[in-house]
Amino acid sequence: MSTLRILVPVKRVIDYAVKPRVNKAQTAVEIAGVKHSMNPFDELSVEESVRLREKHTNKTVEDILAISIGPPKAADTLRTAMAMGCDRSIHVEVPEKDEMLEPLQVAKVLKEVVEKEGRNLVILGKQSIDDDSSQTGQMLAGLLGWGQACGASEVVLDGEYLKVTKEVDGGTEVVRGKLPMVVTTDLRLNEPRYASLPNIMKAKKKKLEKKKLEDFEFRAVNRLKNLKVSEPPPRQGGGKVEDVDGLISKLKELGAL
């Protein structure tokens, strides 16, 4: 059975329960003074990495390394990942005033970390809930020349192979790939654990390595520019009809029939 050296990228995003607001300049979403937390899909990735280690007691999982590319407060997100079970972490610090890196730039950083740290499995969320690009995992697999399984709802280690179940239209699809691999996680994969107080205290003693973008060979240059960000128009209220004839009449009036 292969020894796994897992990399788990995590991202600090606006908390999923917060309703985002567009800033006054209409250039981005307002982030000042807004509650942030770990991207929900990344929580699944951390949990699945820890579960793989728990399922295989013969030291199959050698090391779980978390990484985040973001502002100084992203260190809190990494501490949470370590409290959930990651062994150590790397924080690639990006000044808060800088624009968010695009998926390709993130994938290039992750590629260098994979090669330097000798990783053979990357488990990451299929998307982040702020930009919803759903591209980083696929781009990373392409840069590395590795196999990939996207939108996993079940992950099973089988010797040198991973068997991944994913939901597709009308049912499920099962793929099997040889390590090394990139796996992206979907919502039905697992239920992330809460970080207990003792584990939060232990996480403070785990290694958190600080890096900057200048420490990497590539140079981050975004290729896209946000021209305008605006909120969707308010939804109009519904109406009631008395019978089927009234429904048909209303649909014709709206041009739906």
From TrEMBL:
UniProt entry keywords in alphabetical sequence: Electron transport, Mitochondrion, Transport
Manner of cofactor binding, per the entry note: Binds 1 FAD per dimer. Binds 1 AMP per subunit.
Cofactor field: FAD; AMP
Subcellular location field: Mitochondrion matrix
Domain Electron transfer flavoprotein alpha/beta-subunit N-terminal positions: 26-220
Family annotation (InterPro entries): ET-Flavoprotein_bsu_CS, ETF_a/b_N, ETF_b, ETF_beta_N, Rossmann-like_a/b/a_fold
GO cellular component terms given for this protein: mitochondrial matrix
Annotated GO MF terms: electron transfer activity
Key word NAD present: no
Pfam families given in the database record: ETF
SUPFAM superfamilies: Adenine nucleotide alpha hydrolases-like
Keyword Transport: yes
Biological process (GO), any one: fatty acid beta-oxidation using acyl-CoA dehydrogenase
UniProt function note: The electron transfer flavoprotein serves as a specific electron acceptor for several dehydrogenases, including five acyl-CoA dehydrogenases, glutaryl-CoA and sarcosine dehydrogenase. It transfers the electrons to the main mitochondrial respiratory chain via ETF-ubiquinone oxidoreductase (ETF dehydrogenase).
Family named by the database record: Belongs to the ETF beta-subunit/FixA family.
Assembly description: Heterodimer of an alpha and a beta subunit.
The protein's name: Probable electron transfer flavoprotein subunit beta
UniProt organism field: Arthrobotrys oligospora (strain ATCC 24927 / CBS 115.81 / DSM 1491) (Nematode-trapping fungus)
